[in-house]
Amino acid sequence: MNYPEFPQDCKSLLSKHLSLEVFEALKDKKTSNGFSLEQAINSGVRNLDSGIGVYAGDKESYALFGALLDPIIEEYHGFTKQDAHKSNLNPDDLNAPNPDPEGKYIVSTRIRVGRNMDNMPLGPAISKEQRDHVEASVVAGLKTLEGELSGNYYPLLGMSKEVQDDLIKDHFLFKEGDRFLDAVGLNRNWPEGRGIYHNNDKTFLVWVNEEDQLRIISMQQGGDIKEVFTRLVSAIKSIETKVPFSYSDHLGFITSCPTNLGTAMRASVHIALPKLAADMEAFKAITDKYYLQIRGIHGEHSESEGGIYDISNRRRLGITEVEAVQDMYDGVVALIAAEKAL
Ligand code: ADP
Ligand code: IOM
Q1: Nearest ligand to the C-alpha of residue 40?
Q2: Do the Cβ atoms of 150 and 276 come closer than 8 Å?
């Protein structure tokens, strides 16, 4: 492979950190699962609108391709090689009374974590047999969940197009054919090995074998962020007794995208901010201050509709889960105050 030239206006962290020197040092390296630099960067090379543009094929990728990944991790999370990751899943430490009890701004709240199985390649380097094994192990674990977490698993294979489209439209299921995931091999053998588990109310869901092998999700209408977090923590604690997760003392939970390392947590609200959105500079000044990310209404790489935005914590590594949710909560309080003042 030749050194990829990125256009001047490309903003991905890959384009910023893949110098010719780094490329030459890494281009012939492969992890023990056969994952190469060419595979790691293909998504960002093909998709110039990537935010990051690089993925790991396994835990080893983070060490082997460290010359590229370390500066990306540092820039995204503000986390250096000297820093240590930390965890706090205690809902009592979260200060988050509902910021919008009248339901004027917050449509819904969702908190998810990514997880991958220990001693398995990540999705970009996994074989079909290994992926099917992950699905079977995860589903066996999920079937033992009780109470509010008890539900059913719905494999994508055999799901009608109508059901699938409705689940996507209603924000419960991942989309199909994502070009960013496609370019790193995350859509191989689609739809086999993929599916969704959820309880009856769809307040607790698990995506199987999308960007990560598990996305554990708690969501509900309105702005009771603490209730959503509490349900998620109880799910994580139950599932981790059944499925061994890939973890590193330094990087926290191992995920295929470097943005998700650490807590692997994205806590978001769908929130109506039509007035503030008319002044994007003022909007971004608040989201930057509270380390927040703005997404559109259908998730990453989508647009806002009707003044409703997806606002979530940006940092995930080097801070605890409680701090990640607190970032989102404090920022949302400030955003609502700004919207009210207009
Ligand atoms: P992820 O959150 O796993 O990184 P996406 O950004 O693609 O992935 O979002 C996945 C889905 O979750 C999308 O349909 C998105 O609209 C939905 N979603 C995210 N946050 C919320 C929320 N607070 N309320 C309802 N749906 C949400
Ligand atoms: N997590 C991943 N889907 N994303 C950061 C892709 C990108 O824009 O690089």
Answers
A1: 2
A2: no
Whether residue 188 has its Cβ less than 6 Å from ligand 1:
no
* Residue 119, both tokens: 């001693």
pTM: 0.97
118 and 189 share a domain? yes
The CATH number of residue 291's host domain is: 3.30.590.10
To the query of whether residue 300 is one of the catalytic residues in this protein, the response is yes
Residues 166 and 292 in one domain: yes
Our answer on whether the CB atom of 86 is closer than 6 Å to any ligand 1 atom is: no
Whether 316 lines ligand 1, by a CB cut-off of 6 Å, is: no
Instruction: Say if residue 56 is in the same domain as residue 112.
Output: no
Assess whether the C-beta atom of 17 lies below 6 angstroms from ligand 1.
no
Query: Contact, 296 vs 312, CB < 8 A?
Result: no
Pair 262, 122 in one domain: yes
Helix (H, G, I), strand (E, B) or coil at 258: helix
The single residue of 255, 259, 263, 320 carrying the catalytic annotation is 259
Tally the domains of the chain: 2
Catalytic residue among 295, 314, 315, 316: 295
Quote the ligand 1 centre to 178 CA distance (angstroms): 14
Prior bond of 71 cis (ω within 30°) = no
190 with 222, same domain? Answer: yes
CB 10 within 8 A of CB 4: no
Q: Is 231 labeled as catalytic in the residue annotation?
A: no
**77 DSSP 8-state letter:** H
pLDDT tens string for the chain (342 positions)?
A: 899 999 999 999 999 999 999 999 999 999 999 999 999 999 999 999 999 999 999 999 999 999 999 999 999 999 999 999 999 999 999 999 999 999 999 999 999 999 999 999 999 999 999 999 999 999 999 999 999 999 999 999 999 999 999 999 999 999 999 999 999 999 999 999 999 999 999 999 999 999 999 999 999 999 999 999 999 999 999 999 999 999 999 999 999 999 999 999 999 999 999 999 999 999 999 999 999 999 999 999 999 999 999 999 999 999 999 999 999 999 999 999 999 999
For residue 94 the two structure tokens come to 């979260």
Rg value, the chain, Cα:
20
